[in-house]
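JOB MANIFEST
job_type = single_chain_structure
chain_count = 1
residues = 740
[input]
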Amino acid sequence: MKMKGAYQLWSALPRVRPYMRPYRRLVASSYVLTVLATVVALAVPWPLAVLIDSALGSGTPPGIVRAVIGTDKVALLVSMVGLSFLLTVTQNALAVFTDYVNAKLEQRMVLDLRADLFAHAQRLSLTFHDASRTGEMMSRINYQASSIGAITVAFPPLVESVLTVVGMLVIALLIDWQVALVSLCVVPVLWYSFGLYGTRIVPRLQRVQALEWQSLSIVHESMAMLRVIVAFGREKHEHTRFRDQGLVAVDERVKLTVRQTGFSLAVSTATAAGTALVFLFGAYHVMQGQLSGGSLLILLSYISAVYKPLEAISGTVGSLHEQLVALNASFELLDKEPEVVEHDDPVELDRARGAVTFEDVSFNYTGRVATLSDISFEAAPGQRVAVVGPTGAGKTTLISVLIRYYDPKQGRVLIDGIDTKRLSLASLRSQISVVLQEPLLFSASIADNIRYGRLDASMDEIVEAARAANAHDFISALPKGYDTELGERGATLSGGERQRISVARAFLKDAPILVLDEPTSSIDSRTERVILDALEDLMIGRTSFVIAHRLSTISEVDKILVISDGRLVEQGTHDELLTHAGTYRQLYEAQNRPRPRRFERGSSVPLDAGRETREEHEPELEPNGEGQRAAEHSNGVNVDEAAQNLAEPFQAPSGGAGSRESISSPTGFIDFLARVASDSSDPERARRATVTLGLLADEERRELEAVEALVADVPADAGHGDHGLLHDELSGEPAERRTT
């Protein structure tokens, strides 16, 4: 947040007026009540003065009192006491009405500003949100926005205090101008203290606000990352991080409070000194016969009443500075310009045919270059298009540009021949359904989450969409069925169940363009098959874009786009791309070749071989004998055929670095790939090595999923054979059930 001086903060006040305009009657009522309260406050001391001078003393009542009540002392006593009571009740009643009007005005203005902030935050680009702290955003929208109401309702009391000061000072001058002038000696002190507050305390207010935002961000981040925190056992670390940051914020808040209290103390001391001087000079004038006792009492009442508004003004100014800091933070968010802006005369599209064209599209994120470079392709209506490539190649960014999460830096994207920048954002996004890699659900019922695809959908349509997504059976099995309330982000469901609800949501939206961003990458093979069946039905009749790493899932699509380093390097069908020795073929062959078998260090026998086989091949180890030398040498001569097949695209001429003779085992092959990937002399060879390393990691993960699926099918009491041992080792059974 940009730091501003005290006087700069006040420049935001004119921006409050548009939020006051819809509530002009409430604003007018507030000021009318303020004026009435001021008049009543000015009248409160007079009955007491008449009581002392005329009822208890020997003075003559004022003309209007004498004309209405007469000169009878008992009548004067009763009348003045009654009038004083009536004025007090009226003053309190006006305060109640004023509080009601101000509360209504304040809360409605706060809601309007919060709504504007929320709507604007949704319009801001993902680039802004990626760089922003969620806790800070929540604070600006939910907490800082309340400052607009606090500032608005602070001005009527401020006006009341100013009017009271002026009115009471005029009356005090009429009673005894010398004493009244003495009372003004505190004004320069108060004026100086206001300036000091702005220069010394306001910067600390801004710093404390920023620190408290950080605390809120830590809380939000920790709650969102709770599974990771628990998995790594970092609860104590996060608690310490929160405490340490909180201590800094608390220390700064305490220092700020001390300074604010010191400011209030200085103001109170100045007004107390002024009251003492007034009493001193007033008593002297009474002793000299220049002033009556009743007049001195009225004068002291008015001077005290003058000082109270002055103290109120000082307190209000201090509070206003704190609220202005918060208000400026809210307006800073409103001043952020969205990167994706709707056209001045947008085109509304009823239902697109689904023709999608990219023309020389280039894009890069802030601080990066060439995330996408000169991408051009066409997708016909109803065509299924897969987007493949290494991790970080730009696949998801390509789809993000289609949806207008971001606008291309160069080139354009067309839907049915219309530039997406000409379409209204609502119309564009109504044409596209999205199923993300991470299924994001709301903390609402299952029915409401599916209904999010089309808000006016009936319950029958929701159930039909769930059936199409193969989700109806598991939903019906839940105790509350479609009315089951989900936790935040759908945490009470499994990954596959959440994904099927996301697919149902896409079915219900029924958009002509479908985007599938690796929707089955994080689920097991059995659930993947269920979801793929639903997705096959969902893609019928829709232009579909499928981002995939597992090439086996996209072999039947109509067109495949191969992205590498932000460029479209190949496009065509599965069979066409396999006929060329390009990136797609390398990816496909790497995924479908046998995986290298693992060897124990110093052994020629694979780790997955049986125990008897391992014993047969284990060389007899004798100190300094041939067996020892054979074991030492075995790591250099036994090579798995799969490793050699994978290494084929990287082979150098015989005898050179990376030749067949130098790749002596699967471990050696991995080391070799790492060296090739870091070699900048041959970029294409280094890229292929990097891709292959990633594919080997994917293959290992798929094998683990297969083992987990196998274990799930093995009974826990399968005995101590091979299956029983496998179940024991992976399910955590007691140690006595395990064999060596």
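[summary]
The chain is about 60% helix and 5% strand.
Residues 611-615, 617-648, 650-665, 710-740 have pLDDT under 50 and may be disordered.
exit_status = 0
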